[in-house]
Amino acid sequence: MAAMSQKFFNPGFRLHNEILRHDYSRYEDEEWRGYVHLGFSIANFWGILREAVRLNDRELFGTAAERLKRHLEVAWDDVYGGLGWSMHVDKGCVDYRKTSYVHEEAMIGLLTLIERLGWEWARDWYARIHRYTFGNFRIRRYPGWHSYMDRQCTPQEHVKRRENYHHPRYLMLSLQIIDRLREHAGRAAWA
Questions:
Q1: Rounded to an integer, what distance in angstroms lies between the CA atom of residue 97 and that of residue 22?
Q2: Per residue in 60-78, is it b (16+ CB within 10 Å) or e — as a string?
Q3: Phi, psi of 3 (to 5 degrees)
Q4: What distance in Å separates the CA atoms of residue 155 and residue 50, rounded to the nearest whole number?
Q5: Which residues, in sequence order, are bridge partners of residue 99?
Q6: Which terminus of the chain has fewer Cβ atoms in its 10 Å neighbourhood, N or C?
Q7: What is the pLDDT of residues 61-75, one digit of tens each?
Q8: Domain-by-domain residue ranges, the chain?
Q9: How far apart are alpha carbons 145 and 155 in whole angstroms?
């Protein structure tokens, strides 16, 4: 947990680096110094949040919540909507291709925040990402979900891979959280 929450965090730009050396030191060359895989970082945060709940570690929970929000703000595509894939801070470029798993993993993290603290910003982000996800990744002609899309989230008729993991996990974990929220009459668990 310490490696994910401390070692990969780059305080210079307040995002998690994707690639470090084996000893967790940062690369100094331009190619890897500022590379951030926004999707993997967002996916990691819900795991850190759940571990913080398990440990009853509110400080770790708060750190993960703050960083999830920061990564969502940076990853959001203000032109076409949705969450971008990765970026290179030093080069000033963002890869805004869309993947369903990034959106689903973000929603798991946001539901965890809603369950524990009921924060309004988490509710707003959840609603925004949920609308985008269900409006763009769902295949309308038959049951299924698009996985990897271009920046505009253009439906793909023929693809080599369909999502078979992240979407069911999102559904199962979301239902568990919603059930717990119902048990608590919608009140946040740590509020």
A1: 29
A2: bbebbbebbbbbbebbbbe
A3: -60, -45
A4: 33
A5: 148
A6: C
A7: 999 999 999 999 999
A8: 2-183
A9: 10
Query: Which residue type is seen at 133?
Result: T
3-state helix, strand, coil in the chain (%, to 5): 50, 10, 40
C-beta pairs of 95-99 under 8 Å, 24+ apart in sequence: 96/151, 97/148, 97/149, 97/150, 97/151, 98/136, 98/137, 98/148, 98/149, 98/150, 98/151, 98/153, 99/39, 99/147, 99/148, 99/149
Please name the residue that has the structure tokens 């309308």.
140
Largest CA distance in the chain: 52
**Residue 113 · residue 65 · CB < 8 Å:** yes
Q: What confidence tens digit (pLDDT) does each residue in 8-61 have?
A: 898 988 999 888 888 988 888 777 778 899 999 999 999 999 999 999 999 999
pLDDT given at position 90: 79
Of 166, 35, 20, 43, which is closest to residue 92 (Cα–Cα)?
35
What is the C-alpha to C-alpha distance for residues 140 and 51, in angstroms, rounded to an integer?
A: 36
Range of weakest confidence among 54-68, 70-84, 105-119, 175-189: 175-189
For residue 88, which phi and psi values (nearest 5 degrees)? -125, 105
Q: State pTM to two decimals.
A: 0.92
Q: The tokens 């470029």 sit on which residue?
A: 93
Q: Which of the four CATH numbers 3.30.450.40, 3.40.50.1000, 3.40.190.10, 1.50.10.10 does domain 2-183 have?
A: 1.50.10.10
